[in-house]
Task: inverse folding
């Protein structure tokens, strides 16, 4: 535990500045994507292996709590993609290492340009979904029960 | 590891060296190649699922439409083969920064490799054998 606190504190404190923050954001976004990805892949495989569980999980993931998580995954994928391309270019072009700071700022700029409209769209359809359920007398925060998807049982 | 070329570029010197073939080097190259592939595949997947469509409309029937063509099945299988090894190798890179015993690092590496193989095989079977006609 103390080594975890040390890691977090020193990661923030270290004098690497823009490159250091890119390094941290790359690791955190990568871990976040991987956490989602492993659940997503095993869950989606159920579309074939266990359709009832898959249909139930789709309904569960429409809960706004998971919806906010998806917006987070969108942010993580966009940042990790753009910064990963920056890392790859700089790995093959060491002459450009002097542009470390400028390139990391460009990545943050591209990230916000791509992410903000995506987030607005995703949050919009989340709100629309909750309004549609509310109009039908349901609640988007309700956890669906497994038996509602009995028609998919095989 | 003799230097092939040396060019001073102002404050620093860039030295191109020939490296031995090693698993570490292949892994390093895989991260770059899969990363570039996923700029199209993974970002494209996010755009298709969350911008052009929405997960609030996602149903098994929608999946059946997507996986009724071998082209989209191949897209998803290829993305799977890039994403799971890329993600798990990234996790191993992070873990190895905090694991001080090489033996423990190797054991965790083997376990993660087995997890990659199991996940990729399981999900590839699911995508390949998914039959849209089975969806009610």
Result:
């Amino acid at each position: 535990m103390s080594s975890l606190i040390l890691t977090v504190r020193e990661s923030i404190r270290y004098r690497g500045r823009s490159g250091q923050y890119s390094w941290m954001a790359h690791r955190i976004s990568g871990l976040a994507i991987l956490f989602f990805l492993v659940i997503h892949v095993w869950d989606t495989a159920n579309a074939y292996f266990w359709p009832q569980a898959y249909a139930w999980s789709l309904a569960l993931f429409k809960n706004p709590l998971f919806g906010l998580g998806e917006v987070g995954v969108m942010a993580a994928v966009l940042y990790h993609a753009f910064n990963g391309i920056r890392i790859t270019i700089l790995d093959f072009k060491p002459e450009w290492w002097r542009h470390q700071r400028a390139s990391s700022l460009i990545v943050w700029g591209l990230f916000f340009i791509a992410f903000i409209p995506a987030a607005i769209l995703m949050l919009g359809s989340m709100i629309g979904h909750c309004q549609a359920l509310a109009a039908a007398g349901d609640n988007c925060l309700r956890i669906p029960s497994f038996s509602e998807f009995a028609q998919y049982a095989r | 590891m003799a230097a092939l070329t040396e060019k001073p570029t102002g404050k620093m010197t860039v030295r191109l060296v020939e490296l031995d073939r090693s698993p570490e080097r292949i892994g390093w190259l895989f991260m770059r190649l899969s990363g570039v592939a996923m700029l199209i595949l993974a970002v494209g997947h996010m755009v298709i699922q969350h911008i052009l469509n929405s997960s609030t409309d996602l149903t098994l029937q929608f999946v059946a439409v997507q996986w009724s063509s071998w082209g989209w099945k191949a897209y998803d299988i290829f993305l799977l083969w890039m994403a799971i090894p890329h993600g798990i190798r990234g996790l191993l890179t992070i873990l190895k920064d905090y694991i001080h015993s090489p033996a423990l690092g190797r054991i965790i590496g083997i376990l993660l490799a087995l997890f990659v193989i199991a996940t990729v095989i399981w999900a590839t079977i699911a995508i390949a054998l998914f039959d849209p006609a089975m969806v009610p």
